[in-house]
Amino acid sequence: MRDHTKLRAFQLADQLAILVYKNTASFPKGEMFGLTSQVRRAAVSVASNIVEGSARSSEAEYLRFLDIAYGSAREVECQIGLSRRLGFLNASEHAELLPVAVESAKVLNGLIRALRRS
Q: Helices marked H in 31-90 — which ranges?
């Protein structure tokens, strides 16, 4: 079994989920079942899929879950931008969140590419 806690990809995903929850707490109440819920679910999905993939026995399954995590990380990037354009995030919140989302996706993509090469 792989130790997901040692992966930089997991550490960034975990940080991203915490930041998303913190920065979406002030979203409009009318968005509780809309964008707030969507971006939170996507952020949690990044870390969760890394963990679930790490627990799988085959490399193919591991990669499949990492691919899902990567898709969720890119989804979070999109939703952060949308939240800013809608005025739900101010400039400093956006500046805190977006780099972590981008870095999370980059690190995941690098991990996926490295595993596919080996």
A: 35-54, 59-85
pTM: 0.94
Q: Are the C-beta atoms of residues 96 and 19 closer than 8 Å to each other?
A: yes
Q: Smallest Cα–Cα separation from 47: which of 25, 70, 63?
A: 70
For the chain, how many structural domains are there in total? 1
The pLDDT tens digits of the residues spanning 91-108 come to 999 999 999 999 999 999
Which residue range is the domain that position 106 belongs to?
A: 87-118
Q: What span, in angstroms and rounded, lies between the C-alpha atoms of 96 and 4?
A: 24
C-alpha 86/C-alpha 90 separation (Å) is 10
- Asked if the structure places residue 117 within a domain, the reply is yes
Domain assignment of residue 5, yes or no? no
In one-letter notation, the amino acid at residue 81 is G
Residue 67 lies in a domain: no
